[in-house]
Amino acid sequence: GAVAHRVVPEVPAYALNTIRGTVSMEIRVTADGNGQVTNATFKSGGSSKYFERTALDAARGWKFKPPLKDGQPVDSAWLIHFKFRQSGTETAAVEETP
């Protein structure tokens, strides 16, 4: 599988300015055979409910190119990393399974 569409949360500057260092979190998502996210849960949360909610909402909007098994698309699980800093937001995804 592969990431087909990445959603980077749009965080207002006033919210980013409240960060000292980095607010990091990981969200585990399950994508169906169409690449749509069907479930999103925290593997590790951050220190801010605002940034947790923002990351979870963004993770639900990601789309994936499903992996193939015997020529057919199958469900997959991904771990999406979010890092919020005053300078902006970074995202990355790692496929955990088909």
Describe this structure as you would to a colleague.
The chain is an alpha+beta fold. 16% of the residues lie in helices and 49% in strands. It has 2 helices and 8 strands; from the N terminus they run βαββαβββββ. The protein has helices spanning 13-16, 49-60; strands at residues 2-5, 23-31, 37-44, 63-65, 68-69, 72-73, 76-85, 88-97. The strands form 3 sheets. A 4-stranded antiparallel β-sheet has the order 3-2-7-8, with helices on one face. The mean pLDDT is 94.
Strand-helix topology:
Blueprint: E1 2-5, H1 13-16, E2 23-31, E3 37-44, H2 49-60, E4 63-65, E5 68-69, E6 72-73, E7 76-85, E8 88-97
Antiparallel strand pairs: 1-4, 2-3, 2-7, 5-6, 7-8
Short description, anyone?
The chain has helices at 13-16, 49-60, and strands at 2-5, 23-31, 37-44, 63-65, 68-69, 72-73, 76-85, 88-97. It has 98 residues and is an alpha+beta fold.
- Anisotropy-based shape: elongated
Structural class designation: alpha+beta
* Termini separation: 8 Å
Strands side by side in the biggest sheet:
3-2-7-8
Helix content: 10-25%
Strand percentage lies at: over 45%
| Sheet with the most strands, sense and barrel status | 4 strands, antiparallel
- The overall strand count is 8
Give me the oligomer status. single chain
Mean pLDDT: 94
N-to-C SSE series?
EHEEHEEEEE
Q: How large is the count of helical segments?
A: 2
Low-confidence stretches: none
Estimated radius of gyration = 14 Å
For this entry, give a set of tags:
about 100 residues, alpha+beta, 2 helices, elongated
